[in-house]
Amino acid sequence: MTRSEAPQTIKVSKEKSIWTGYQIVLTVIIVLISLTCLLPFVNVAANSLSSKSAILAGKVTFWPVDLELNAYKAIFADPAMVRSLLYTVVITVVYTAFSMVMTILLAYPLTKKRLAGRRFFNTLALFTMYFSGGTIPIYLNIKQLGFLDTPWALILPGMLSTYNMIILKSFFSALPGELEEAAIIDGANDFLVLLKIYLPLSMASLATLTLFYAVGKWNSFQDALYYIQTKAYQPLQLKLYHIIKGSQAVDIAQMEGGTSTLATEISESIQPATIIFATLPILVVYPFVQRYFVKGVTIGAVKG
Question: Could you tell me the pTM of the whole model?
Answer without folding.
Answer: 0.73
